[in-house]
Specification:
The protein has a two-stranded parallel sheet with strand order 1-2. The chain has helices at about 1-15, 20-25, 30-35, 55-60, 70-85; strands at about 40, 65. It has one domain. It is about 55% helix and about 5% strand. The longest helix has 13 residues, at about 70-85. It has about 80 residues and is mostly helical. It is extended. It is built from five helices and two strands.
């Protein structure tokens, strides 16, 4: 019940401005910005993620995508290396 109360309070505090974030997300020219990325881009997510079934489409939005098919230990190893660099 406390969590519900806390979330409701946050909602009420932002009721007059929440739409600014939504509007910005819809107005953002994602396709143009992704196409302008010059560095090779790692595109990945976990299987339970809602975007997982769309990964190939998302990767195609970048000029030089890298879309590895990683499983368990491979993914953790990649994450560890990324944090260390």
């Amino acid at each position: 019940m406390e969590v519900l109360h806390a979330r409701f309070v946050e909602f009420i505090k932002n009721i007059e401005t929440y739409h600014h974030g939504y509007r910005a997300a819809f107005d953002y020219d994602r396709d143009a910005r992704f196409a302008a990325v010059e560095a090779p881009t790692l595109v990945t997510c976990a299987r339970p993620d809602f975007a997982y079934r769309h990964l190939e489409v998302i990767a195609a939005m970048f000029p030089t995508p890298h879309l590895p098919k990683l499983q368990g230990r491979q993914l953790r190893s990649l994450q560890t290396r990324a944090r260390q660099s």
